[in-house]
Design a protein that fits this description.
two-stranded parallel ribbon, alpha/beta, six-stranded mixed sheet, 11 helices
Length: 306
């Protein structure tokens, strides 16, 4: 079991960033951080994936094509959403399923859209710019496509569902929340089957930061502690306890919350301490293949090792 939160706070070792930079991008599970990085770059190269934009259309089509090459089944949830100011958005959740015949399943999710404004930028002109979303959007997509490379060749020990949600980052996180977490809310209300209940779920968000450091997200820790324990213990077993640190990262409103509210045991793996967050500077040079390799290694081990 993981140690108590108060006792563990601050136990990440000095020099961890240097240790991470020395690690290879290929892992013992076979996960390739270099591939994940290239897939993330493919998303960023489309431009900001703002819902309703041509870049979003192309990026979504690309995800569907990539997952149809890898997964056993791909389900596209296409739906219309009306924003608070009356704008109609055409959105798509993409669900790639591996071993869909197995009743015991694990749900992974990440959002693939990027934010239409950069409210954390320093100038008024920059605040009006869309976010490129290298870390906040593309990093999770890149990891999922690279994970698909593994699962296509090596059957997972459980059924695996990779959910790419749309419209996570569109509006205002508040409070109150307005026009955010749109895709995860839709998925929570339109599950793949009436009795859909995965063993557990993990949201992978903002996982490419060069100086990656992932604390507990406290909605996760409070509502699904056994899932947090499973993920952090797997990371420790792989030698990543300096990245998956045992301390509080606070309460974060993210795509796992609607699923928790729907009764699914889903946690958030996120490094929110990221200076370019919600700015025009969330670009590919701010993320690394090594960070993606670390997270991808954990995600792979969870569903391929008994």
């Amino acid at each position: 079991m993981l140690c108590a939160l108060a006792a563990c706070k601050g136990d990440a070792k000095e020099g961890s960033a240097a240790q991470r930079s020395a690690r290879p991008t290929a892992t013992t599970t076979g996960f390739s951080g270099s591939s994940a990085y290239s897939y993330a770059k493919a998303q960023v190269d489309f431009g900001p994936r703002v819902p309703g934009s041509s870049a979003a259309k192309k990026a979504g089509d690309w995800i569907i094509e990539q997952m149809r090459r890898r997964a056993d089944t791909v389900i596209v949830q296409s739906f219309s959403y009306t924003t608070a100011d009356g704008k109609k958005l055409a959105l798509r959740n993409i669900l790639a399923r591996f071993r869909p015949d197995l009743p015991e399943r694990v749900l992974y999710l990440t959002h693939w859209d990027s934010r239409p404004i950069s409210e954390s930028a320093t100038t008024e002109a920059e605040k009006k710019m869309p976010v490129p979303g290298a870390n906040d959007g593309a990093s999770g997509v890149g990891m999922f496509v690279a994970l698909g490379d593994i699962l296509r060749k090596t059957k997972p020990t459980v059924g695996v569902d990779l959910l790419f949600t749309d419209g996570e980052d569109y509006g205002q996180f508040g409070p109150p929340e307005v026009d955010v977490l749109i895709g995860s809310k839709y998925f929570a209300a339109h599950l793949p089957s009436p009795n859909y209940k995965p063993l557990y779920g993990v949201l992978w968000d903002m996982i490419g930061d060069k100086d990656l450091r992932i604390p507990y997200e406290m909605n996760s820790f409070q509502q699904a502690p056994e899932v947090v324990s499973r993920v952090w213990q797997t990371a420790a077993d792989l030698g990543y306890s300096d990245v998956f640190v045992q301390e509080s990262g606070g309460l974060i409103t993210d795509d796992h919350v609607p699923l928790l509210n729907a009764g699914l045991r889903v946690i958030d793996v996120i490094d929110l301490t990221y200076a370019p967050h919600h700015t025009p500077y969330d670009t590919m040079d701010k993320i690394s293949a090594r960070s993606l390799a670390i997270v991808g290694d954990v995600a792979t081990a969870l569903v391929t090792r008994k």
